[in-house]
Write a structure and sequence with these properties.
By secondary structure, this protein is an alpha/beta fold. The chain has 3 domains: 56-157 and 225-462, TIM Barrel (Alpha-Beta Barrel); 167-210, Oligo-1,6-glucosidase, Domain 2 (Oligo-1,6-glucosidase, domain 2), CATH 3.90.400; 464-561, Golgi alpha-mannosidase II (Immunoglobulin-like, Sandwich), CATH 2.60.40. It is built from 15 helices and 22 strands. The longest helix has 24 residues, at 3-26. The chain is globular, with a radius of gyration of 28 Å. The two termini are 49 Å apart.
Length: 563
């Protein structure tokens, strides 16, 4: 063979090898894709969205903290920022490879400004820290440590009213003082009542001032441009100078009254529109969530007008608890569907209870199974979830308000590990059985359940952004909902009753392609060894699961299409 032919043969062989190599690299490992093991995404605790996410609040899990009741560092019986900072690793240690922290990504602090009241909702100074909680240096250290761990921090910004002890109001008692017009005064009593039938006009200095919540909290007059300028200045201080990430706006719907129209006035919405533009101009990643305690149809107006980044959904909160308690699975699915539609394109703040409501565990009669059910539905549904401190361990509490804001229960030791002194408020008597230390080492505890749910949520895009699809089930006691986003879908199943359900069947509107789907069990211990076949029947998709759903069992299943 001459040299020319040798080179030709070598070239042909090389081309053949190249073709074979390309074929092998693109060939599936196995033809039976339903048997391919699916990677467990929960083994990677890295949240899909990071701290620098420009719209971080849409993908966050918030934790509401009453500093006074969280952790006391100096033995005076009052929680403080030093104590809170020492507990940050419990909330989020900043290490995605660990699973011993709760995993939340944002904190809402109840009022931290100086105030004559224990709760802090009657402010006397918008530029300082309540001395009960420490110093500005203590707060700055807390904020820096939170940010290091990937935790955003928002403040309760109480701007509808001040304390009667605020220097502005004290000066306003003099009709000739420049601060007189900072509040709403009348020479005579207008006589009308407030939104819930309460007195709103109170006598002082021969006149009457308006106060929608309580006579110790006089409303500011936002028709006075000086009031707006001062509140804008205070907001700038906390966002631009101190570096907080936003605000929860207390009592937002009452900001500007139009005589007897004391909620949701056009002027109120317009004021918040201007405020929104202002703080977004300072920092596009700053956010506000409005406390507009009203029906969903009314509160979405604030989102449509770009007055807030988010508002709380009170209707859904009530439905989750009441329907979990009564076992109304179908009604619960309908409620989530309705609320998701009303908030379509906007962000709703979802929650079970907050500092103004009886605690979840008390409403559910101390039933831990029902508490787990409520948590699963909250943390797999659309919206940005908020968890009230202690909710994750099952703390109890019923009004009056002090009893739903009791000290955090850290251990079963004396005073629940909250303080070494006399606590400002008596600690719940159940702390030896209900505490962080005990539940941290129990994989079946409510705390472990919350930890699992938060990690599952933050590591699955369908649970962060996916459309909610109501799933009809053959058994009326099973709640089922799908979250679908692009090619990813997550199915949540919750048994709301204490009886088991065998071989349930499911049906939903065709929002997901029919076909075979691999199963990745994110929560639960069912041995799914086969794929799920979604069958199109008319305009619906049907499927079945050959399993027994145990009493109060919670399952979260990721569906992965087989191409």
């Amino acid at each position: 063979m001459n040299r020319k032919n040798i080179w030709f043969v070598a070239l042909v062989i090389a081309l053949i090898l190249l073709i074979v190599l390309i074929f092998l690299l693109n060939k599936p490992i196995t033809q039976n894709l339903s048997l391919v093991p699916v990677p467990d995404v929960t083994s990677n605790n890295q949240s899909i969205y990071g701290f620098e996410d420009p719209q971080w609040w849409e993908h966050a899990v918030f934790y509401e903290i009453f500093v006074r009741s969280f952790n006391d560092s100096n033995g005076d019986g009052i929680g403080d920022f030093a104590g809170l900072t020492s507990k940050l690793d419990y909330l989020n240690d900043g290490d995605p490879s660990t699973d011993t922290d709760l995993g939340i990504t944002a904190i809402w602090l109840m009022p931290i400004f100086p105030s004559p009241s224990y709760h802090g909702y009657d402010v006397t100074d918008y530029y300082s820290i309540n001395p009960d909680y420490g110093t500005m240096e203590d707060f700055n250290l807390f904020l820096n440590e939170a940010h290091k761990r990937g935790i955003h921090v928002i403040l309760d910004f109480v701007i509808n009213h001040t304390s009667v002890e605020h220097p502005w109001f004290v000066n306003s008692l003099d009709i000739n003082n420049e601060y007189h017009d900072w509040y709403i005064w009348s020479e005579t009593n207008p006589g009308y009542k407030g939104p819930w039938g309460q007195d709103v006009w109170f006598p002082s200095s021969g006149m009457f001032y308006y106060s929608v919540f309580w006579q110790g909290m006089p409303d500011l007059n936002y028709r006075n441009a000086n009031v707006t300028a001062e509140m804008n200045k205070a907001a700038s201080y906390w966002i631009n100078d101190i570096g907080v990430d936003g605000f929860r706006i207390d009592g937002a719907k009452h900001l500007i009254e139009d005589e007897k129209i004391q909620a949701n006035s056009k002027e109120t919405i317009a004021w918040f529109q201007s405020f929104y533009d202002l703080y977004k101009g300072w920092n596009a990643k700053a956010m506000t969530v409005g406390e507009v305690w009203d029906s969903s149809k009314n509160i979405t107006t604030y989102l449509e007008s770009e007055s807030f980044d988010m508002v709380f959904n009170f209707d859904l909160a009530g439905d989750i608890i009441s329907m979990v308690k009564s076992g109304q699975a179908n009604s619960l699915g309908s409620s989530i569907t309705t609320e998701s539609y009303l908030f379509q394109g906007y962000t709703m703040g979802t929650f079970l209870t907050n500092h103004d409501m009886d605690r979840v565990m008390s409403q559910l009669n101390n039933n831990q199974d029902l508490a787990k059910n409520a948590a699963t539905i909250l943390l797999t549904s659309p919206g940005t979830p908020f968890i009230y401190y202690g909710e994750e361990i099952g703390m109890t509490g019923e009004k009056p308000d002090e009893k739903i804001r009791t000290p955090m229960q850290w251990t079963g030791e004396d005073l629940a590990g909250f303080t070494t002194g006399k606590p400002w408020q008596s600690i719940n008597s159940n702390y030896p059985e209900v505490n962080v230390a005990l539940e941290s080492v129990d994989p079946q505890s409510l705390l472990s359940h919350y930890r699992d749910l938060i990690r599952i949520r933050l590591t699955n895009s369908a649970l962060l952004e996916g459309k909610f699809i109501k799933v009809n089930v053959s058994s009326p006691q099973l709640f089922a909902g799908l979250r679908a986003e692009d090619l990813e879908a997550v199915l949540t199943i919750v048994n709301l009753k204490n009886t088991e359900v065998e071989n349930p069947t499911f049906s939903f509107k065709k929002d997901l392609n029919p076909g075979l789907y691999n199963v990745d069990l994110l929560l639960g211990d069912k041995p799914f060894s086969e794929s799920i076949n979604l069958v199109q029947v008319g305009e619906k998709i049907d499927f079945s699961l050959p399993i027994t759903v145990m009493p109060y069992e919670n399952l979260i299943i990721k569906l992965i299409p087989i191409n």
